[in-house]
Every structure is written in C-alpha cells, then in structure tokens.
Write a structure and sequence with these properties.
The chain is an alpha+beta fold. It is about 10% helix and about 15% strand. It contains one helix and four strands.
Length: about 60
C-alpha cells in the first residue's frame, strides 16, 4: 500500500475542504396566508398548493 511521503499541512487540507459547506434552502411566501414555505410544497399553515386546498389543517 502507498504511504504519504510528506505531512499534508493544515492549510492545504483546509483549502481542499472549502467547498464542503451547507447551502441555505430556498424560501418563498404563500400567496394565500403569506407564511414562509419551501417551493413546490403545500403550505402547512393554510393547506393550499397552487391556489387550491390540498391538505386539511386541524387548527382552522
């Protein structure tokens, strides 16, 4: 098996790992109740998707 000939410095390791990061998920506003929600998902507060009710909300 191959073994490293030289120590890999912290700077070199960190430069390689700069792209390992999380991205924030996209957020849109519901056109009915103006709550924040993920795109292409039904609204959890009013239960609508594309202008029609698809989920029955218990707290209504």
């Amino acid at each position: 098996m191959a073994n490293p000939k030289h120590k890999i410095s912290k700077a070199r390791t960190r430069k390689r790992r700069t792209h390992y990061k999380l991205t924030a998920s996209a957020v849109t506003l519901c056109p009915q109740c103006h709550e924040a929600l993920r795109p292409h998902y039904a609204c959890l507060s009013c239960g609508t998707y594309k202008g029609r009710e698809v989920v029955e909300v218990k707290g209504k």
